[in-house]
Amino acid sequence: MNTRKRLTLSLVIVFSSALLAVVSALRMVAPAVLDGLDTLGPGLAERVLPDAVCAAIGLAAGLSGVVIGLLSRRASSSPMLRSAAIVVTAVTIPLIPGGMIPVAGYTFAMVVIVGVVVLAALLVRRHLWWGLAAIAVLVGILTWAVVRLHGAELAGTFLASLVTILPGALLAAAHLILVVALIAWVLAGSGERRGVTASWVLRHRTPITIVAACCALPYTVARASWLTPWPLLAPSDVNLADLPMVLLTGLSLGAAMLAGGVLTLGLILPWGRHFPRWMGGLGGRAVPVPLAVVPASIVAALFTVGGADLVLSVLDGEIGDGSLAQILELALVFPFWLWGPLLGLAAWGYVMDRRDASVPDQFTRPETASSEPVVTRRS
């Protein structure tokens, strides 16, 4: 890791840890000040521990993270410091606020719309007529969503709700960023040394990534069925044709889930290493490793924590009727508990594979002059 990347990572660890420490301290001495942050559900730790204990743990983790961040620039190879970072990571994960999965789903659905528009614009730069055709189809879909399904009203409702929960969402994002930054620093500090687990992940990264991407299929199929007379996971005794906003919500979330599965496959497909040729201005260039790994790592942490929170909510009867059949149904249709860990492993394998690709093969010797026939000239 070069000096600039190490400095950036250190600053991220310091600032996110400091935020966690400040918030935790305020929760201990003046909890009323932070009433506006309780916009999301409780984290995994808050389900079993008192608020004061969780605040004390958060303060200790935050202060420890600040120290690790300050020392990380000079002590990247210190085993003791890496062990401390692993402990802080393990402690921080249960402190992440719950209820982030729905917020992330709606947010990513809007990001997908913007992303599709950007891709269409890049296509126009390289292939004009194909790009114009793609834009025409996109405009038709958006017009149908706005006019027939009240898309503008739905977007306004979501943005209003997002403003309400924004403080809690930003706090959860700070937790996630701290966890990912600490893990990235620990892995970067290990250098080229790979243990049994790392070697296994690299060797099996393709099936791991495929299984992770397939986690998007159950939900995507269920939402796509809303366009048929046999909608799955739809509100009971309700005609979706009479509820256009509900229909648009389901289709948007299904499209976001499908996009997430496709992006997961990018960790093993060629366009995850080099931008496709049809992307004007970017085609053929190498995809920056952080561009693929940072979002994947944050989503992996979010899915892992959110998936565990969702399973506990189902088991506690907070979601559904608590029956075994519904528990299995929700666990299979919303497999974030599986997708998160697998996505994290897939991102790790991607990093190792890209690192190997950037290092010349030590067993390949370039041809030297001594390998050529030697011609001597006699004087």
TrEMBL record:
Keywords: Membrane, Transmembrane, Transmembrane helix. It comes from the Bacteria. The keyword Iron does not apply. The chain crosses the membrane at residues 49-72, 79-97, 103-123, 128-147, 159-187, 208-226, 246-269, 289-315, 327-351. This is Uncharacterized protein. It comes from Microbacterium aerolatum. The lineage of its organism: Bacteria, Bacillati, Actinomycetota, Actinomycetes, Micrococcales.
